[in-house]
Write a structure and sequence with these properties.
Layout: H1 2-28, H2 31-47, E1 51-58, H3 60-73, E2 79-84, E3 87-95, H4 98-108, E4 116-119
Antiparallel strand pairs: 1-3, 1-4, 2-3
């Protein structure tokens, strides 16, 4: 009696597990999910993907000075000096998510003030 109960329970358990696994596979291949992924890819192509931290926006002399100072303090972090007429921007890092950029900004804020996290454009 005990073995029959265990065998029936095991068969029902495995059948239920296979049904659940099969249901998950159907969900991931639905047309709605494919459409959402296509929309996300199109959005990333148009508006860019990722984030940077802007440490300065202003005149050229101070921008170059802050970029040099940043490179000395954080030598392994990418820096970019960009001209946006009539001002210069110093942007640092390449981060995939805003959370990663925010964490890095906290580390940089010990030596630099007025940091802002900006999304990457085209």
């Amino acid at each position: 009696m005990k073995n029959k109960f265990f065998t029936v329970f095991l068969i029902l358990f495995l059948t239920g597990g296979l049904y659940t696994l099969n249901a998950q596979n159907k969900t991931n291949s639905s047309q709605e999910v494919k459409n959402l992924i296509a929309k996300k890819r199109a959005f990333n192509k148009e508006y860019g993907y990722g984030y940077r931290i802007q440490i300065y926006y202003g005149d050229e002399t101070k921008a170059r000075s802050l970029q040099s100072k940043f490179r000395i303090n954080f030598p392994n972090v990418y820096t970019k000096l960009d001209y946006d007429q009539p001002n210069w921007k110093v942007q640092v890092g390449n981060y995939k998510t805003k959370l990663e950029a925010d964490k890095a900004a906290i580390n940089f804020s010990e030596k630099f003030s007025g940091l802002i996290v900006i999304p990457l454009g085209k």
